[in-house]
Amino acid sequence: MPPGTSPPPAPAEAEAEAWTLENAAAGAAAGFTTVAALHPLDVVRTRFQVSGGRGWSEVPPYRNTSHAVYTIARSEVSLFTNPIWLVKTRLQLQTPKHHTSGYSGFSDALRTILKEEGFLALYRGIGPGLLLNSIDFAALGAGSKVAAILLTYPYQVIRARLQQRPGSDGTPKYSNSWHVVKETANIYASYCVGT
Q: Is 94 exposed, middle or buried (0-12, 13-18, 19+ CB in 10 A)?
């Protein structure tokens, strides 16, 4: 062994070192998860402690805990999530036709936006998030989902019926889309008449 070098660790020492690193990583992940999950409630508790929930300070008044969580979520959550939504939207909208160099992923998009457009670019489009509350977003999302289902479900049925496996003789049950529509209407009509 050359002078000035230490011998390789014994197998037991290497295993103990790996175990220590695993514990450190698990502890760090658990700590982060706990802080991330409980931070909103910690903010509510601290604000109630300062103001008593009655607006006797610079902190906004809250009627109760759920009102405090709602008010804080409406403004502060948008501040944290808007950059994520902006990057996600940019990734979804990138096309080779409109951009000479696309983003290679989330971190590349974030770095590029910060470098080329600055920090404030991460908060483009935050206005609607502050004006509309989570119930408004849920209602809009549910409404758009229902509309999408109502508009696309018939197409999905037609497509699925055309894609089904042919019968044992090798011939498909339906010859084209119009055939599917007619047969489905006939089945529905016979069901309605039969009941």
A: middle
3-state secondary structure of 113: helix
- Cα–Cα–Cα angle for 113, 80, 89, rounded to 5 degrees: 45
Question: Measured between alpha carbons, how far is 56 from 70 in angstroms, rounded to an integer?
Answer: 20
Mind listing the pLDDT tens digit for each residue in 176-190?
889 888 888 887 777
Dist CA 46 CA 42 (whole Å): 6
Instruction: Tell me what the mean pLDDT of segment 35-50 comes to.
Output: 68
Cα–Cα distance measured from residue 160 to residue 150, given in angstroms and rounded to the nearest whole number: 16
On whether the pTM is more than 0.70, the answer is no
CA–CA distance, 104 with 125 (Å, rounded to integer)? 23
